[in-house]
Structure formats: C-alpha cells, structure tokens
Design brief:
By secondary structure, this protein is α/β, with parallel strands linked by helices. The chain has eleven helices and eleven strands. Strands 1-11-8-7-5-6 form a six-stranded parallel β-sheet, with helices on both faces. The chain has a three-stranded parallel β-sheet with strand order 3-2-4, sandwiched between helices. The protein has a two-stranded antiparallel ribbon with strand order 9-10. The structure holds NADP nicotinamide-adenine-dinucleotide phosphate.
Length: about 290
C-alpha cells in the first residue's frame, strides 16, 4: 500500500476492543432508556435447530443481558408452515414492547426466506434485511444497516487507513454481508470490485484478490482464498465462519495470509464479535426510531 507509514506485517485486527467500545455506549443508552420506565427488547425466532445458530443465539443472549437489553427466542419446530411464521412476525410487528426482531437463517426449505425477511417491520429490522432498510442504505435517509457490513467497515477504519480511492475486493455477494459492505465502502469512495461464484468459475477470483489493497471475504468456504494471493500489506477482513475438524475457521488461509497482510481479522474473534455489538446498537437505534414515530 502507498501509505506513508510503514506498517509491520501480520497485525491482528481483534474485534473485542471495538465491540467493547460499542457496547459501553449501548449499555449507557439502555440505562438511560430504563430511567424513563422502558426496556429495550430484542426478539429472535428460530425455525428448527441448527448447531451454528445455537452458538450465535447463545452469544447474542449473553451480550444482550450484559448490555441491559431484554432478549428472548421463540423456537419453532422445523415443520412450522410459512403462514404460521408470517402470522407470528405480524404479531411481533404490532407489539409495542418488542423493539427488534431477527429471524435466524437458514429456514427450512419449504419456507421462502425473502417473504419472511421482507415481512418484518423495517423499524424492528435490526439486521437491515428489508427492502426499506437496504433502499435507505443505497439512497440515504433513516434506516437500520446490516450489522456484519457495519462491523466490516468499522474494522477497516480501525486500522487508520484512508479508504478513499483504495482498491477493495469483496468476495461474496449476499444481501446481508457482501452487497451492503460494497455499498458502504463505495460511500467511503473506495474502488470496489465484487466477486461471486461466476468470478470463480471464470478463473478470475485470484486476480481480483491479488489486486486488493483491502480484501473482504464472506463466502462460507474454508481455504477458498489462498494466502499466496494476498497483496503485500493488504488489509484482510475474513467474515467467513466454517467448522473444520471441530474448530472455527474463516474463508482465508490464515497463516500464509497473515505473513503478507498488514492487518488480518482472526476467526473467531474478528468480524463476529463486532457484528453482535452492532446488533445491540441497532436494537437501541430501532427503539429510538419507534419512539420518534
Ligand atoms: P451466502 O448467502 O451463502 O453467500 C455466499 C456468497 O459467496 C454468494 O454471493 C456466492 O456467490 C459467493 N460464493 C460462493 N462460492 C464462491 C466461490 N467459489 N468464489 C467466489 N464466491 C463464491 O452467505 P452469507 O450469509 O453472506 O455468509 C457468508 C459467510 O459469512 C458464511 O461463512 C457465514 O457463516 C459468514 N457470516 C458471518 C457473519 C459474522 O458475523 N461474522 C455474519 C453473517 C455471515 P453467488 O452469489 O454467485 O452464489
């Protein structure tokens, strides 16, 4: 990178410090809200049991309690119909006590993800998955942005790097991570390339990774990004979460990538912890938005 500061290689971008800063502010605001006789409330719904979701739910619950946010989970059986799920969401949308709602993915195959996510009241959509909130992200205005994308941008900013004009490559184009991260980084005036399965199939993925001054990966395939592809001094943000041999790993070959990167996020302990902190931040934002209405 052409930064005038010489940055040593392999610095770890741990999420904990950033997460603690966000949560300290959230806890203060939750306290202030409680002094007015109200309590922030985050509701989550899971349909069927998914081991990765269970881990995520437990960490959300722990962080919410610590921050002073009520947190509850509705666990539905895997054969719950789409109609029943939509009617539960509709009643949560109307419930003035509940400020935030997450419907955990994956849903069983007989349920259409988009119909479910798009039925959430945008003012309670703390994951930022509704057309309203994605639209606001693109066009501007009040809305709730996707937490993982917020975490990715915050981790990059924490390095002190000037993002403007940088070559950024994002691998993975999901509605919840890759797409919103691309939009946020465009807003920072980065030059953004977005890679997906077709990029890989055409054999162009390696070159896009080699070009990246800032690399963001959110695919869900361990070892997809080879360490030797990383540009000298690049910032590497690995949002992937995979279980290999009972251990959590990202999508980037960590050890060899660390030798070349200036900064790299560990998995676990990188993007994930900051994402959960932003979920709590968004719950408070959602509550403020509802109270203003
Ligand atoms: P997703 O919806 O399955 O999207 C995966 C994306 O990767 C798609 O855009 C897909 O391309 C692309 N892709 C698949 N194979 C590829 C390949 N060989 N080369 C290039 N691109 C490829 O997944 P997601 O929900 O975004 O999650 C991605 C990963 O991030 C998962 O490991 C998930 O667990 C993790 N995650 C982490 C957090 C966190 O807080 N740290 C939060 C959410 C997700 P197409 O669009 O062409 O199919």
């Amino acid at each position: 990178m052409d930064s005038p500061t010489i940055v040593s290689r392999g610095n770890l971008l741990r999420g904990k410090t950033i997460a603690n800063g966000i949560l300290e502010q959230v806890t203060k605001e939750a306290c202030e809200i409680k002094s007015r006789g109200l309590v922030p409330f985050l509701m989550t719904i899971e349909v069927g049991k998914d081991p990765a979701t269970e881990v995520y739910l437990e960490s959300q619950r722990r962080v919410a309690r610590k921050a002073g946010i009520n947190y509850e989970t509705i666990s539905l059986s895997s054969n719950t119909s789409q109609e029943r799920l939509l009617s539960i969401i509709a009643s949560i949308n109307r419930d003035k006590i509940i400020n935030g709602l997450i419907v955990h993915m994956p849903l069983p195959a007989h349920i259409d993800n988009r119909s479910v996510q798009w039925s959430i009241n945008p003012k309670k959509d703390v994951e930022g998955v509704t057309p309203h909130n994605i639209g606001r992200l693109v066009l501007g205005g009040e809305g709730l942005a996707p937490c993982t994308a917020l975490a990715i941008v915050e981790l990059i900013k924490s390095t002190g790097t000037d993002i403007r004009g940088r070559e950024v490559t994002i691998v993975g184009y999901s509605d919840i991570v890759g797409k919103p991260a691309a939009i946020m980084l465009l807003k920072e005036e980065a030059t953004v390339s977005i890679c997906h399965y077709a990029t890989y199939e055409r054999g162009h993925l390696e070159q896009h990774v080699r070009d990246a001054e800032i690399l963001v990966v959110a695919v869900g395939k361990p070892g997809l990004i080879k360490g030797e592809w990383i540009r000298e001094g690049a910032i590497v943000i690995d949002a992937g979460i995979n279980t290999v041999g009972g251990r959590l790993v990202g999508d980037v070959e960590y050890n060899s990538a660390r030798d070349k990167a200036s900064y790299i996020t560990p998995v676990p302990g990188g993007v994930g912890v900051v994402t959960v902190a932003y979920l709590m931040r968004n719950t408070i934002e959602a509550m403020h938005w509802q109270l203003r209405a």
